[in-house]
Amino acid sequence: MKSQNANGSKVVRVGLLGLGNVGAGVAEILSTHGEMIEARAGVPIRIVKALVRNKRRKRQGAAGDVTLTTKASDIVGASDIDVVVELMGGIEPALSYVTDALAAGQTVVTANKAIVAAHGKTIFQAARKNKRDVHFEAAVAGGIPIIRTLREALASDRVTELTGILNGTTNYIVEAMASGQSYESALAVAQELGYAEADPTLDVNGADAADKLAILIGLAFGASVTRNKFGCVGITELTGEMMMDAAELGFAIKLLARARRVVTGGVETIQAGVFPYLVPLGHALSAVPDAQNAIYVRSDSLGTTLYQGPGAGGLPTGSAVVADLIEAARNVAAGTRGRSTVQPTRAGPKLAKSGDTVCPWYLRLTVAEKPGVLAAITTLLADESISLATVSQMEPSGDDNEVGIVMTTHPTSTGAMERALKKMHRLKVVRGEVQVLRVYAE
Amino acid sequence: MKSQNANGSKVVRVGLLGLGNVGAGVAEILSTHGEMIEARAGVPIRIVKALVRNKRRKRQGAAGDVTLTTKASDIVGASDIDVVVELMGGIEPALSYVTDALAAGQTVVTANKAIVAAHGKTIFQAARKNKRDVHFEAAVAGGIPIIRTLREALASDRVTELTGILNGTTNYIVEAMASGQSYESALAVAQELGYAEADPTLDVNGADAADKLAILIGLAFGASVTRNKFGCVGITELTGEMMMDAAELGFAIKLLARARRVVTGGVETIQAGVFPYLVPLGHALSAVPDAQNAIYVRSDSLGTTLYQGPGAGGLPTGSAVVADLIEAARNVAAGTRGRSTVQPTRAGPKLAKSGDTVCPWYLRLTVAEKPGVLAAITTLLADESISLATVSQMEPSGDDNEVGIVMTTHPTSTGAMERALKKMHRLKVVRGEVQVLRVYAE
């Protein structure tokens, strides 16, 4: 394929794979801010074609002016398309389209976290091999420029912690629960507002946040991981009781995607996972509202920085896609493709075993109201070298001689906590399941 | 000057102008993270020389290994230096060194807000003319990648508001005052901690924040302005009484550098200025702690995003310089200098007249305790079409028949407020100066 400079057409020609919410946002932004974008890119950017399933469906706004096709080959590998923007989601055929486009010498912009998280290696290898670029700012945290920041601004630094609220849907639901709503009704409202999909599984089980965390771990720590390599727990087991306990203890509950560099016995590992956490109310992440995303980064030279903004939505995500398009267009026009944007996945530190990850914990037990119960439990914890930070007995909730106990621990490995829980459940005085959450500590 | 690719030395050679706090940070980061930085830049980056006043002074850490010179011409225009890093501060000779370096074909990285704010046009013209780049991430908000974000991530968007805490020293002092310290003692502690200079004038009078705001206005709105074109009030007039009033009303006082796009009668202007504001406690900017900086950006597509982190210090600022160095090195090595990084200053919207800028206000008056006083004041305000949001009478502070009144207004132009204040001061029942602060509203 000839470059723009070579064929003299002086315009960067874009093909969209998908014209849904984000695709329409991209078309809208390019149409509304075309002049400004051309000034910044140094060359006009034009959407030449969009791949859709149904050509007859009426489309609103700028998306209505885009030429439609149902044949992928009109875009992928087509000689009149310089940049392929993949907005389909899912693994296939998106992955094949992306690698085929790179093989054909096209630049790729994608908003697809699933393929970058699960097949990043394949995609980046294809880019390097063909000396082309893959841009994926929109794949993580929508409108927050975290990919660019990790790649450019933090290029000079060594990241030691990255903790994010990477899924807006669950942040909205958890916040609604904190103000007294049930999980079910909060989810229903999130669906009404368009924050949650009809099938919200990948949001509420943490998988969406885990995919994004896997991508960020690659950039921040140079470790190549997929989401099935670290622990992941969603928000479906959170209860109103936990919310009230957290507030009383001075915390807010948030679903955090977290990765930290930890050196134990001279060996450096990354402790990573997606879990609901009790976050101290003074911490910036405790106050992230609505469906917003935020990423908190700690690094050697910079210290801590925070990046907060909208994590989803057609225009915010579209805006990230267009920022990538501007960068892509500059490189296409200057003939400097494949220059720098994709970092090789370096042989970074390994992930710690899930049992070795360490944090303080919150526990809530329902126990028989009789003497010696607390002693039995604390002895059991001490056997696993778990030391308590706080213990409080809650008001008896019913009339059946049971009482609630809320405890927080000092930092403890997940392995030790799991062993202690197993033993606790064997105690006759412990009724039902012990509820457990991690507590955020730096 | 030959480029690295041309002369085959395969290393990007850097000369530092100045080897103080930030210069030492740059040396330290390049030495500690050299391997990682080389991987990311694609080429080694080496400090060849540093210009200092006193060659004999002992320097700690990596700075101790740098070859020193007292002759600027060993760096500026020298054939063995690819990138000149200007860390001197002040206007001259820094400005001449920067333009001379560009004229000699060198790339420039600067952390000097003063020259970019006051002479940005000259510098960017020199860069364009010589097809070279000027990078200045470190000039604003130290370690927060706001320049990069405005230039790259927000390149696809239209910014409508930019509000920042751009001076860490004053943020530290104001926070300490909110917890009961006097201005003088808070300043003394800030000086002890190294946050404030021995002569803190440019911090506390707002000039430092105003310089940074002028730079950001250029990037965000395409308007070319210098700091003397908009209002600027520092923190020296803040009192403990104001702090207590603010807390009681649900606000924190912060020194904000603010610019907003406002359309009045079909004409778009930028309302800009640096002033102490009452910020509602729910707003992210109200909670920015210590000497941190933060920038809150509102734009058409993205909505609101927040960037928070350390605004000063050798390592954070050094880290921003090295991020720029990495970008510069990639361009030097690839022979793609002068490609894209400096935006021409476009003919953006004009600044609004200071009297036309609009916001809600906080007023504190000491008045004679007698009937009809409040009526006289509210009538006077009504004459200027100023409507009140809240009025509260404070406990009498002394025994001389005086009483404090605290009022907040609905949005009012600065012109109307100034006229009302003039009239108020003429009333016999008003004792002493009326204290006035702006209130932050979106």
List keywords for this structure.
alpha/beta; 6-stranded parallel β-sheet; 11-stranded mixed β-sheet; 442 residues; homodimer; disordered N terminus
Write the layout of secondary structure elements.
The structure is a homodimer of 442-residue chains.
Chain A: H1 4-7, E1 12-17, H2 21-32, H3 34-41, E2 45-51, E3 68-69, E4 83-86, H4 94-103, E5 107-110, H5 113-129, E6 134-135, H6 146-151, E7 159-165, H7 168-178, H8 183-192, H9 201-204, H10 207-221, E8 231-232, H11 240-249, E9 251-264, E10 267-280, E11 292-299, E12 303-310, H12 314-334, E13 350-351, E14 358-359, E15 361-368, H13 373-383, E16 388-393, E17 402-409, E18 412-413, H14 414-426, E19 430-439
Parallel strand pairs in A: 1-2, 1-4, 2-3, 4-5, 5-6, 8-10, 10-13, 10-19
Antiparallel strand pairs in A: 7-9, 7-11, 9-10, 11-12, 14-18, 15-17, 15-19, 16-17
Helix pairs in contact in A: 2-12, 3-12, 4-5, 5-10, 7-8, 13-14
Q: Overview of this structure, please?
A:
Chain A is built from 14 helices and 19 strands. With 442 residues, chain A is of the alpha/beta class. In chain A, strands 7, 8, 9, 10, 11, 12, 13, 15, 16, 17 and 19 form an eleven-stranded mixed β-sheet that branches. A six-stranded parallel β-sheet of chain A has the order 3-2-1-4-5-6, sandwiched between helices. In chain A, strands 14-18 form a two-stranded antiparallel sheet. In chain A, strand 11 (292-299) and strand 12 form a beta hairpin. In chain A, helix 2 (21-32) packs across helix 12 (314-334) and helix 4 runs parallel beside helix 5 (113-129). The longest helix of chain A is centred in the C-terminal third of the chain and has 21 residues, at 314-334. The radius of gyration of chain A is 25 Å and the shape is elongated. Chains A and B meet through helix 2, helix 3, strand 12 and helix 12 of A and helix 2, helix 3, strand 12 and helix 12 of B.
